[in-house]
Amino acid sequence: MQQDILVNWSPQETRVAIVESGAVQELHVERTLERGLVGNVYLGKVARVLPGMQSAFIDIGLERAAFLHVADVWQRQPDGEPPAAVRNSQPQVPIEKQVFEGQALMVQVIKDPIGTKGARLSTQISIAGRLLVFLPQDDHVGVSQKIPNDQREALRKRLSQLIGAAGGGFILRTNGEDASDAELAEDIAYLRKTWTRIREASTRLPPPALLHQDLNLLQRVLRDLVTEETQTIRIDSREQFQLLSEFGAEFMPAAAGRLQLYKGERPIFDLYSVDEELSKALGRRVELKSGGYVIVDQTEALTTIDVNTGGFVGSRNFDDTIFKTNLEAAHAIARQLRLRNLGGIIIVDFIDMQREDHRDAVLAEFRKQLARDRVKTMAGGFSNLGLVEMTRKRTRDSLAHLLCEPCTCCQGKGTVRTARTVCYDILREILREARQFNPREYRVVAAPQVVELFLDEESQHLAGLSDFIGKPISLQSESAMGQEQYDIVLL
């Protein structure tokens, strides 16, 4: 299926939309101020060695010195032993015998600075590609633990043959399980070229210096998102088009040939109503063309998706109506998973179908649509309760987590207590206060809708409480307050 990639760039944010057959399938967003340091490689300078803590502080040019623990200092491995086994197979050499103050040291950030703590570093360099991770200081060839055991050895042998005599350590990532030899060879060449550039920079730049920055979203478009189906990559910034063309010409010439500078008068995302799709992807309800709809609820533990017929009444009988709605929903759900980047456990509640052949057809269509996903997915069959359980690998924050935050009124619950419920809470709270304190007057500061209810339908109850406690109760409306918020001021 033919694919186009649209890139909307601004100094504060980069947005990428993948469009197939006129419909947006994926959205990627990266904000300049929120880019982390993890993966960056620096030429640092040892500022201080602390033998008592078996650690050192390294100046890498940031506001605070970064932290290097002895456990993160690379040591050459015994032949054939994977990196994870180093700590168990070799005695740890004290840090004061490995580094000294003033020493120039190549390091990589493995944890971003948090609060008052500086970044955490490692001297074992790893460079991530689309399909592989390159470990230039090692010779180990490994395969992701998430790939089934019965396939690992064959993949390891195949990768060893592609690496050849040039050496270097490589780990095959999960998404490289089904990659062709040509794709793996291209990734190997890219990673080796990147390492050569890092080494050259380390010999000519004085510390502290940034040697390698993990790719930004624009560059990852060429590395990760371009496929054989990609026809064009259109970008609306002349400056970024030039930079990306130079990057692609050096590292990914095949992908760079599809770059185009967008010169249209309309914003590039208006071509396929991408902003409209973005707004829909942040909502719960997804309308289907037939009149049915899908409800998507994302929670911390899992995501639930419910299919409903809505206004779709069908043309022949009820079974066909349900079947057609479920088939359409199977397409829409698979697209929404990509669009919203939902990961983890996902439960899909299709409308109950009586016929076995209908259930089989819907499940087959759903799995067919999931197979188009670049992220690994697994879907089971219908359970005894008629639910489809599936998983989708988490690769990054979902769109909702990236662009939204919990509501300050409901704190993410999705509902708030009614104004009448809040009124009764206030009445109980005043009665509780009256048993402990003896003020001249009670003043209720609350949301306008709560105060309005007290002045109207609940005025009798408020007056009754005032008579009971023998104190006046006044009301003050505060528009800045949420419906559940209130204060009781003792005057």
Number of helices: 13
Q: Which strand order spans the largest sheet, edge to edge or round the barrel?
A: 16-17-18-19-21-20
Name the poorly predicted regions.
none
Question: What's the CATH topology name of the largest domain?
Answer: OB fold (Dihydrolipoamide Acetyltransferase, E2P)
State the distance separating the first and last CA atoms.
Answer: 71 Å
CATH-defined architecture of the largest domain: Beta Barrel
CATH classification, class level of the largest domain: Mainly Beta
Count of β-strands: 24
Structural class: alpha+beta
CATH superfamily of the largest domain: Nucleic acid-binding proteins
Tally of distinct domains: 4
**What's the gyration radius in Å?**
30 Å
The best one-word shape is globular
The portion of residues forming beta strands comes to 25-35%
Strand count, sense and closure of the main sheet?
6 strands, mixed
Task: Set down the secondary structure blueprint.
Elements: E1 3-10, E2 13-20, E3 23-31, E4 41-50, E5 55-59, E6 66-69, H1 86-89, E7 104-111, E8 120-122, E9 127-128, E10 132-135, E11 141-143, H2 149-163, E12 169-172, H3 181-204, E13 209-212, H4 217-225, E14 230-235, H5 238-251, H6 253-256, E15 259-261, H7 274-281, E16 285-287, E17 293-298, E18 302-308, H8 318-340, E19 344-349, H9 356-370, E20 377-382, E21 388-392, H10 399-403, H11 419-434, E22 442-446, H12 448-455, H13 459-469, E23 473-477, E24 486-490
Parallel strand pairs: 1-14, 6-8, 11-12, 14-15, 18-19, 22-23
Antiparallel strand pairs: 1-2, 2-3, 4-5, 4-7, 4-13, 5-6, 7-8, 9-10, 10-12, 16-17, 17-18, 19-21, 20-21, 22-24
GO biological process, one term: rRNA processing
Main location: cytoplasm
Organism: Caenimonas sedimenti
